[in-house]
Every structure is written in C-alpha cells, then in structure tokens.
Write a structure and sequence with these properties.
Distance between the termini: 65 Å
Largest sheet: 5 strands, antiparallel
Strand order of the largest sheet: 1-2-3-9-6
Structural class: mainly beta
Helix content: 10-25%
Number of strands: 19
Shape: globular
C-alpha cells in the first residue's frame, strides 16, 4: 500500500507533494479506466468489460474487447448451450455507440454433473472475447453491454450486469489475458479432417427403435476429451454425448439418442454442431444428418 504521509515540510512544499500524489493517483485511475470498466455484481459474481489492442483488417478496423466474469469459489455459469439445466447468457449491445457488429467468441466449456442433471459451462471465471467492427472507423466507439446470465452453486441465481467502456486503437494492459481466452476458443474444422484431435465420422444409427448419433473422434490415447452437441436452433435440447466403451484404437467414440427436437421439427438436412474439448485444445465441426 502506498504511503501518502509526509514529514513536516514548509507549507508550499507540502502542497506541491500533495498535488503530485493526487495527480499520480488520478493518472492511475485514468489508465485503468482506459482499458477496463468498473465491475458490476455482488459477492457471487461480477462482470466488467476489458479492452484489447485492435486488429487491423483490409476493409475495416476490428476492435478487440472481452467480457470478464468473475465467480466466487464453488459457483459456475453457463455456455451458449447449458445442457440439462441452466440459462445461457444473453448479450445486449443495442445501446452501444458507433458499432456495426459485435462477434461474441465462446471459450471451450466444461461438463458438470449435479442432482439436476448434466450442465455445460464455466467455473473460476471466464472471459468471452469480442471482435467489434465500428460503423465509422474514424469515430469514437463506446461499447455498452447488458448481460443477463445465471450463476449456480447448490441453487441457481439470475443476474444482470450493465457495463460500458470506450474503445480506441491504443494498446491495452489486458492483451495477455484476452489472448489466452481467444486461444481457448474451439478451432473450426470439418468432419474427416486429419490432425491429432479431429472428428473422423458421424453416423446415424437405429438403436431400440430410436435414432442414435455416433461420433468418432481421433485423439491421442492419453488425452481426455469431452464432446458436446448442439441443434440447429437454440430451442433444440439434445442430450449430452456419452463415451462408448470398446472404441477402435486411436478413436474415442461418443453417442447420444436423437431427442429434444422442438415440436414439429424435422431432422433430415438439419445442421448440427459438435464441439470437442481436449486437454491441449478444442475444435468444432458442423454436420448435416440424412
């Protein structure tokens, strides 16, 4: 902690020291405010915006930012598809200034098991990276977010955070943590791609009168993985894929029954997204079912 006490000095020198200390303190607050908003939350969770150094694109300047969510010990929050229970976060940027698009990136999640079933999300906090394209790149950008989300320990509690941050083209002290979160975002791949971690095949099979989806993932034998499946729209509630014993060498097989479609929905031709999370990385791939 900085000591702002002073020995006995002539009044004019003491005043100069006090003014210098106040200026230093103000500058430190301004530096913090330049690349991070204040936290909005309580003892269970809190949210703030952080800025990152921009990406220079050929046609438009892309700004980087992140939504930082801190969680108390034992609490969790949810992924875009929460699984058997939970509420996915909802991001509202409509009150922002000079923003054309905001792309929310999702770091790889984890599976949780509790009395309510299996859910998908994050613990110990998370940063959702943002890529932002201004409407007019030469003008100031102010990002305003209203985030509706839920945090759970033994019970789930809804939460709302309202935060805002001015973004510019300057360097940021949060580049490191933002880059680490960006590195955790699953890399897009295609079914059948090569690589140490790859979705090799997806099959639809009949099992006991039900349609069953079987997923073969190439993975190093010692690496634990998990697989998540999402329907074509958020109102699909697919079961979480489960490991299948007796997989071929070099393959880990997962499967789930094709259940949870909204009323009246057809399966044929629909796009499903698979996310594979390993110990050293994560991938995602889309597939269409026949």
């Amino acid at each position: 902690m900085t000591d702002y006490s002073y020995p006995c000095l002539p009044r004019h020198l003491l005043l100069l020291k006090i003014l210098a200390a106040a200026a230093a303190l103000t500058n430190s607050f301004s530096a913090e405010a330049a690349d991070a908003s204040a936290w909005d939350g309580d003892a269970r969770s809190a949210v703030r915006l952080i800025a990152g150094s921009p990406i220079t694109a050929a046609k438009a300047r892309t700004l980087r930012a992140g939504i930082a969510v801190k969680l108390a010990a034992g609490w969790k929050t949810y992924w875009r598809y929460p699984g058997d229970s939970g509420i996915p976060p909802r991001f509202n940027f409509s009150r922002s200034e000079n923003i054309q698009t905001v792309d929310v990136l999702w770091p790889a999640p984890h599976r949780f098991s509790d009395p309510g079933g299996q859910s998908i999300g994050y613990k110990d906090g998370i940063i959702f990276p943002l890529h932002i394209i201004p409407r007019e790149p030469a003008k100031p950008v102010r990002l305003r977010l209203e985030l509706e989300y839920a945090v759970c320990e033994k019970l789930c509690v809804p939460a709302v955070a309202k935060v805002e941050l001015a973004l510019d083209a300057g360097a940021s002290s949060h580049d490191g943590e933002l880059a680490r979160s960006e590195a955790q975002v699953p890399k897009p791949t295609r079914i059948g791609d090569s690589g140490e971690l790859a979705v090799k095949a997806v099959q639809r099979q009949a099992s006991q009168g039900k349609s069953r989806i079987v997923i073969d993932v190439a993975v190093p034998s010692s690496e634990p993985i998990d697989v998540f499946a999402e329907g074509p729209t958020p109102d699909w509630a697919l079961p979480l894929p489960e490991p299948v014993p007796g997989s071929p060498p070099g393959i880990k097989r997962f499967a789930f029954n094709l259940e949870g479609a909204p009323p009246g929905a057809t399966v044929k031709g629909q796009a499903f997204k698979l996310t594979v999370v390993g110990g050293t990385g994560a991938i995602e791939a889309s597939t269409h079912l026949d």
